[in-house]
Amino acid sequence: MKYLTFNHQNTSTIGIGTWHIGEGNHEKTNAEIQAMRYGLDHGINIIDTAEMYGEGLSERLVGQIIKNYHRQDLQLISKFYPFHATPKLIEESLKASLKRLQTDYLDLYLLHWRGNTPLAQTVFGLEKMVQAGLIKNWGVSNFDLSDLKELSEITNGNNCRVNEDLYNIGSRGIEYSILPWQKSHHMSFIGYSPFGSDGSEYLKIDPILIKMSQQKHITVHQLLLAWVIRNLDILSIPKTSSIEHMKANLEALEINFTSDELDLLDQIYPAPKHEIQLDTI
C-alpha cells in the first residue's frame, strides 16, 4: 500500500467510496461487504460515505463492517445535506449518522454541497460538533475557488481541513486553481469518481485509453485510477462493489507512466489553461 499525508495523517492513497453501496439485494450487499473488508485488510484505512447515499443505507452497511476493526485505525468521512446545514440540523444529522455507523465520532464531516444556509452558520455548527467531540475535523465538498475563498474569510473558516471535488482524466478543472490554492492553505483534497459515473457526460473513453491499457496489460479502469493518483498527492475514493474490482484498484497503485505516456494523455485530455466551471456529478 502507498500512503500520503491527508488531513495531517498517514492515509492510504485510495479510499473506499460508498455511493450506491448497501442499496441492493442480499447477494449484492454481501459482495460489497467482502470487497470492503478485502480493501481494509490490505491497507486501505479511509472510507467516504454520506447520509444521502441510500438515505442512510450506505452508512448502515459501513457501520456493520467497521465494528470488526479497531476504530482508531480507520478514518471515517461522512457528509450532510445542504438543507441540514444549520447548527441544530447539523447536530441532528450527525447523531443520526453516528448511530447508523455504530461509532462515537467521525474523523471528518463534510457539507455535501452549498445550499441556502449562510456559511457562517454552518461553520459555527461544525465547530460546536468538534468541541463536543463528535467529529475530529470538518470540511466541504463540491466547492469551487470562490466558495473556498469566501469560506476562508469567515470566523473559523480556516479550520476547514478538506475539500472534495470531482476529479478524473476528463474533469481536470481543479488543477488550475483549486489544487494550488488548497496546497497553499494546507487543505487536503479528495477526488471523487475517478472513473466518471453511470451515464457521465464528463468522461468519454478515447481509443487511446484502450490502446494504452492493452500495451500496459491493465484494464482501462486501472489506467484511469493510476492516472488520478499519479503524483501521490491527492486522495481518490473509487466505489468498489466486488473483491475483483477492489483487487484491481489495489494493483493500480503499482502502475507508473512514462513522460511520453503522460504527454500523450495530456493531448487527448488537456489540463485547463484558465479558470473554468468545475464539473459535478
SSE layout and pairing:
Layout: E1 3-6, E2 9-12, E3 16-17, H1 26-41, E4 46-48, H2 57-66, E5 75-80, H3 87-101, E6 106-111, H4 119-131, E7 135-141, H5 145-152, E8 162-166, H6 178-184, E9 188-192, H7 207-215, H8 220-228, E10 235-236, H9 243-252, H10 259-268
Parallel strand pairs: 3-4, 4-5, 5-6, 6-7, 7-8, 8-9, 9-10
Antiparallel strand pairs: 1-2
Q: Which key features would you list for this structure?
A:
281 residues, TIM Barrel, 10 strands, NAD(P)_OxRdtase_dom_sf, 10 helices, two-stranded antiparallel sheet, 38% helix, eight-stranded parallel β-sheet, alpha/beta
Unreliable segments of 5+ consecutive residues: none
CATH class identity: Alpha Beta
Beta-strand fraction estimate: 15-25%
State mean pLDDT (0 to 100 scale). Answer: 96
Strand arrangement across the biggest beta sheet: 3-4-5-6-7-8-9-10
Radius of gyration, whole Å: 18 Å
What's the short story on this structure?
With 281 residues, this protein is an alpha/beta fold.
Task: Describe the structure in your own words.
This protein has about 280 residues and is of the alpha/beta class. The chain has one domain (about 5-270): NADP-dependent oxidoreductase domain (TIM Barrel). It is about 40% helix and about 15% strand. It is built from ten helices and ten strands. It has helices spanning about 25-40, 55-65, 85-100, 120-130, 145-150, 180-185, 205-215, 220-230, 245-250, 260-270, and strands spanning about 5, 10, 15, 45-50, 75-80, 105-110, 135-140, 160-165, 190, 235. The protein has an eight-stranded parallel sheet with strand order 3-4-5-6-7-8-9-10. Strands 1-2 form a two-stranded antiparallel ribbon. Strand 7 (about 135-140), helix 5 (about 145-150) and strand 8 form a beta-alpha-beta unit. Helix 3 crosses helix 4. The relative contact order is 0.15. The model has no long low-confidence stretch (mean pLDDT about 95).
